[in-house]
Design brief:
single chain, Rossmann fold, alpha/beta, 10 helices, seven-stranded mixed beta sheet
């Protein structure tokens, strides 16, 4: 091996070692966080989080919610999925669910078409390339022949999330996952003003506070049941399904998690994510 190859090998080894250390530190911090008294109650959803295809621990939390309340028609709608390999419904798709993805980015849709071709061809997944606005969302969902009760709605569009959820009428999801701005700590009830064509600019001016979403959810018949470890997504369940399955009270103060966006470095494993399709045996 010549000198340049030796240097390249050493640098690659250092990079792999550093990446492994990041994963170890993330898992150590996660375990230490869950060891705190606040998280001791088994009803606390954060205890059940894990990542398969979600950005953080949402896959595990969604699985636990449906373990408690059951499923209906195993149908989802998610918008803001980017390339599809890191979103809240890819795991459900490979488990046999069906649904609709909406993504504005043309390159993202091209990647989805390539990566998820078997699911698109067998009709389990529908894809719409479109900007999502409060004015367009019901038409977009209806155009995919989706309506009425569905099991899951997931919203992550980095700006107008509050206003789009408020506008949705064509479906009645049993569970809603929606991004919140954890920089706006309870009891602040704030959202960005509605601007149909606006998107996040990388600043902390985006989305809505958890309290604003809790109030909106309550007006639509939903109760907040938890947030994820990174302080990115809040989980709502339709009030008629909650029973005594979740931590009370259903308030922003009880369920708020602070911003821990460094969990974006969390990996499900050493390999790049690929949805298969797998074969159930």
């Amino acid at each position: 091996m010549d000198a340049n190859s030796q240097i390249g090998f050493a640098l690659n080894h250092i990079a792999n070692f550093n990446a492994a250390m990041v994963q170890m530190n993330l898992h150590r911090f996660w375990a230490e966080t869950l060891a705190q008294p606040r998280y001791a109650d088994p009803k606390r959803l954060l205890r059940h989080g894990f990542k398969v295809y979600s950005q953080h621990d949402e896959d595990g939390i969604i699985q636990e919610i449906f373990r408690r309340i059951g499923t209906s028609n195993r149908t989802f709608v998610e918008f803001g999925v980017e390339t599809g390999v890191e979103c809240n419904t890819a795991k459900l798709l490979i488990e046999g669910w069906r649904g609709l993805w909406i993504e504005a980015n043309a390159q993202g849709c091209k990647s989805i078409t390539a990566m998820f071709d078997p699911f698109l061809k067998d009709g389990r997944l529908a894809l719409k390339q479109s900007l999502v606005t409060a004015e367009s969302i019901n038409t977009l969902i209806r155009s995919a022949d989706v309506g009425g009760e569905i099991d899951l709605l997931s919203i992550d569009i980095d700006f107008n999330d509050y206003w789009v959820w408020k506008a949705i009428e064509v479906v009645k999801p049993r569970v809603v996952v929606i991004e919140y701005n954890a920089g706006l700590h309870p009891p602040l009830s704030l959202t960005v003003p509605y601007q149909p064509n606006a998107a996040g600019d990388g600043s902390n001016f985006f989305g809505a506070s958890l309290e604003a979403l809790v109030r909106l959810g309550r007006s639509k018949g939903y109760r907040v049941v938890g947030c994820n470890i990174s302080g990115s997504n809040a989980f709502f369940v339709r009030a008629d399904l909650c029973a005594d399955h979740f931590i009370e009270p259903a308030t922003s103060e009880e369920h708020y998690e602070p911003p821990r966006h460094f969990f974006s470095f969390l990996l499900a494993g050493p390999q790049a994510p690929k949805p298969g399709p797998y074969v159930a045996v």
